[in-house]
Amino acid sequence: MPFKSLKSTLFEISKFKSFKSFKLYLLLNNNIPRKFASNIASKDDSLLKTKKSIKTQPLTTQKVISFVPAGTILKGINIFKNGSDPIAKLDDEYPDWLWDLLNEEKQNALKEHPYSRPALRQQRKQLIKNNNFDKSRKK
pTM above 0.70? Predict the structure, then answer.
């Protein structure tokens, strides 16, 4: 694949909501080589060489499905020295929250939730400031 001009690349990036979704698009459509934990080349590299054309749609309307068929051995994903490569499951066997990880709107809504970690941290900071202020006034 020849290198694209900077202008065309910036135009492509502007079509996406974030740079993270653009990188995901590149991984799925342009087959950018990825580094795996194993340094031994697998015998069956056909999965890495195939190009899949997935039409991109906004993340809110597109139902996310796995692009690897069930039962496929996912070579090179193992992170343990003596472990074996995992086998892909059916989409129904994965938890529902897994498919929401790529949805930026749902992730942002979780961050803004009043019981999320950043919100609770902010509340604790404010409580400490109020308590310190009250202690300084009593003296």
Answer: no
